[in-house]
Amino acid sequence: MGVLFGWILFWVFISKSSNLLFHCVLIGGIFGILNFITAMFFIKRYTSLVNTNQKLDIENRKDSLTDLYNRRAFDRDIRLNNSNVVCSIIFLDVDNFREFNNIYGHQAGDQILVECAKSIKSCIRESDMAYRFGGEEFIVILRQCDKMDAHKIAQKIIERIRKVDNLPFPTITVSAGVATLPEDSVSIEQTVRASDLALLMAKKKGKNQVVLFDRSKMT
């Protein structure tokens, strides 16, 4: 199209005029404007596509119910985690959630998950990452955080959730397991498994509490 337009301009203006320099400047200016408009169009189009892709990426990484990051995001993030950096994992599970769902219905159960997510986000730092791992399970990755500080944060989450006004339904409680890299393991994947074992111990000990991973007590 550009070549065709150029030849048309050439025959209309140049072939019918002796002022060659003037029309060369005129055509050059016209082509410059057309190139600028075309470039701006493609830049705007490219920017729009980038923004759309970024928005879709965020949506694909977020849980639609709780607005926490989802399991897909968690799996990707732990693959990118630097095993040389100290970090702690808090693995949380809502106590008696299946029974609650069976008695009060899934809508009430969903509201519990939303309230738990809000409480978790209100207790962690900006550098931390919170995920809905699946069902009534949540995971928090605490970067540059040792086990004692992670225990304090986990305890704060449990207390915050317990204070949620859930009337007319029963009080919400959660159990939590905490493990730390590299104190308890040599990889982030092993740290997640260690925190899960600590969570199971919290359930066995009566729920509504935090248990720190201790290899000697997990066997």
The end-to-end span amounts to 76 Å
Number of domains: 2
Mean pLDDT metric: 84
The oligomerization state is single chain
Structural class: alpha+beta
The proportion of residues in beta strands is 5-15%
Strand order of the largest sheet: 2-3-1-4-5
Helix residue percentage: 55-70%
Poorly predicted regions are none
- Tell me the series of helices and strands, N- to C-terminal: HHHEHHEEHEHE
Shape: elongated
Question: Class of the largest domain, according to the CATH hierarchy?
Answer: Alpha Beta
Corresponding CATH superfamily of the largest domain: Reverse transcriptase/Diguanylate cyclase domain
Q: What's the number of helices? A: 7
Report on this structure.
Strand 4, helix 7 and strand 5 (210-212) form a beta-alpha-beta unit. The protein has helices at residues 2-14, 20-61, 71-80, 97-104, 106-123, 147-162, 188-204; strands at 87-94, 129-134, 137-143, 174-181, 210-212. The protein is elongated, with a radius of gyration of 30 Å. Helix content is 57%, strand content 15%. The protein folds into two domains: 2-60; 71-217, 2-Layer Sandwich (Alpha-Beta Plaits). The chain has a five-stranded mixed beta sheet, sandwiched between helices. The N and C termini lie far apart (76 Å). Helix 5 packs across helix 6. The chain contains seven helices and five strands; from the N terminus they run αααβααββαβαβ. The relative contact order is 0.12. With 219 residues, it is of the alpha+beta class. The model has no long low-confidence stretch (mean pLDDT 84).
